[in-house]
Each structure stands twice: as C-alpha cells, then as structure tokens.
C-alpha cells in the first residue's frame, strides 16, 4: 500500500495527519509529489519513509536533498521513478505541463503521480493512470490518497 501526498507547503501538522491515517492503513511507503516546504516536513515523513520530488515552491532544494539523506528519504529531484508490486510509477510535481504531456505520450508507466493542482485527479491516458492526491494545504479541502498498486484500488482521504 502506498500513501500519496502533495503540496504540504511546510505544514508538518498536515503531513502528520496524513501519516497517522497511512500508519493505520498499513502503508509501506509515502510518495510526496512536491511543494514540501521545509525540512521539518521531512522529519514527519521519515516516520514511514518514502520519496519526494521538488515542487515549484520548494526554494531550498539543495537543503531538502541534503537533509533527506540523513533521514533515509529519497529525494528524486524534479522527476522520479519507482516500482511497487509489478507496476512502474513516475512521479513529478505537475507544474511542468510539457513534461506531463511527454510522459503520457511515451506510455512507459502504469501510474503518473503528481500534485500542483488544487483538486484531486484520477483519470487514464492510454495505459497510464494519472493520480493527484490534491493538496494537503492551500485549498478548501485537504486530502491524501491510499493506493494498492496491484489491484488499482484507490481511496481519497479527506483530512
């Protein structure tokens, strides 16, 4: 089970709420789709472990990358790939629409995980399922998502 979050904008309390739900749901790893917003957010993320990409509002990218190494959290830069079960994932923040278009055109992944947009997304382009958990902070409703990569079962969690 994967937990997916985005747009925490430095709100460690919002990440903690998501991590609490993830812990109770047998999540093995967390994917943060950018706009982390501060090192203190990574401290909370380290409770479960996981990966993150930079968002357009992550201004201390070098600091986040260096700090994440001490916590065993993988910083993937602007784009990352993981495998979960027998599925291939690509992760990016979502602010670069040309990159999103290129990734969807190439059809190399089962899932594209992204953030940036202020509303959750779940749609399929070719063989690639695009999932956006919605923002943890900065919109009317905070949300995260739980994903079983093998079955494809996804649950949007209101926080």
Summarize the structure.
The protein has 159 residues and is α/β, with parallel strands linked by helices.
Helices and strands in order:
Blueprint: E1 2-5, H1 12-24, E2 29-32, H2 39-45, E3 50-52, H3 61-70, E4 74-75, E5 79-84, E6 87-92, H4 97-106, E7 111-113, E8 121-125, E9 128-132, E10 143-147, E11 154-158
Parallel strand pairs: 1-2, 2-3, 3-4, 6-7, 7-9
Antiparallel strand pairs: 1-10, 5-6, 8-9, 10-11
Helix pairs in contact: 1-2
Shape: globular
| Mean pLDDT metric | 96
Derived structural class: alpha/beta
> What integer value in Å does the Rg equal?
14 Å
Mind telling me which CATH architecture this is? 4-Layer Sandwich
The strands making up the biggest β-sheet line up spatially as: 4-3-2-1-10-11
Low-confidence stretches: none
In whole angstroms, how far apart are the ends?
A: 18 Å
Task: Supply the number of helical segments.
Answer: 4
Total of domains: 1
What percent strand?
A: 25-35%
Helix content: 25-40%
């Amino acid at each position: 089970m994967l937990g997916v979050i985005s747009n925490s904008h430095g709100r460690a309390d919002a990440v903690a709420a998501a991590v609490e739900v993830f812990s109770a749901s047998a999540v093995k790893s967390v994917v943060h789709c950018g706009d982390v917003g501060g090192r203190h957010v990574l401290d909370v993320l380290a409770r479960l472990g996981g990966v993150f990409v930079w968002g357009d509002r992550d201004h201390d990218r070098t600091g986040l990358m260096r700090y994440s190494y001490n916590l065993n959290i993988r910083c993937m830069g602007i784009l990352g790939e993981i495998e979960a079960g027998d599925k291939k994932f690509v992760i990016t923040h979502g602010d670069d629409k040309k990159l999103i278009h290129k990734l969807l055109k190439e059809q190399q992944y089962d899932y594209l995980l992204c953030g940036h947009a202020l509303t959750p997304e779940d749609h399929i382009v070719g063989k690639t399922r695009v999932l956006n958990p919605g923002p943890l902070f900065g919109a009317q409703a905070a949300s995260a998502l739980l994903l079983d990569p093998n079955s494809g079962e996804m649950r949007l969690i209101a926080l």
